[in-house]
Amino acid sequence: MGYVFDFKDTRAYEDWLSDPKNRATLEHQTQLLLDLLRPFSGERLLDIGCGIGFHLSAFLKAKLLVTGLDPSPYMLDAARNRLGNRVDLHRGIAEDLPFEDNAFHYASLITTLEFVDHPQKALEEAFRVAKDRVILGILNRYALKGVKRRIKGMFSPSIYNRARFFSVWEIKRMTFSLLGEVPVSWRTACRFPVLGSRITGKIEASRVMQRCPFGAFAAVAVSLTPRFTTRLLPLEYGPKHSVTPLAG
User: Fold this and answer.
1) Sequence spans of domains, the chain
2) Nearest-angstrom CA–CA distance, 183 and 113
3) pTM score, whole prediction
4) Of 73, 162, 224, 234, which sits most exposed with the smallest number of CB within 10 A?
């Protein structure tokens, strides 16, 4: 199941989100995800590991039909308080989704793989329930901020003690092992500690900078190819008309 956020974690995240600087960072990351996802209005999206529903709100603004799933009842309660009945919420784990194949157009895992026991199985499940694209937001293991988080976790209690950091190349490797070499695109964000200034905002928005592999947050989009189940059919043949033998 991985790490399940408790009541204390949920309150801490809500407090962290109340800081305008942190909210600006999340909004920038979310826009990067939407730019890669390129969703169409009215289509269905499953947010796996939806937490308190911050990204659910962004997907609703994009006019998607949104479903959220999370293993934490505290996170789901917070999401329900935030969004009411505008989203369909389920309690469950990423490695065993309670949905049929191709049930959604899109699936998202945003800082979710970091806290599951079996990341590749979680990816496999996301690929199973989505039919168009899967978008991932990961904490980049090769970013300077990611290194600082891991070092800090060695000396003081932190949620990052529970997290496993990934790189874009690890996500691509797991994806290709499951699906073959399907199209994968990626961008990174948060190369600067503060996004509040106009200058840093413009630099962050640059396509050249987004291709830098060292941003603290990486967005990865996987385009899914159609999958079909084939079944061999027996070949049967019989003459339409009987033939009368000629008299000798």
Assistant:
1) 7-223
2) 20
3) 0.82
4) 234
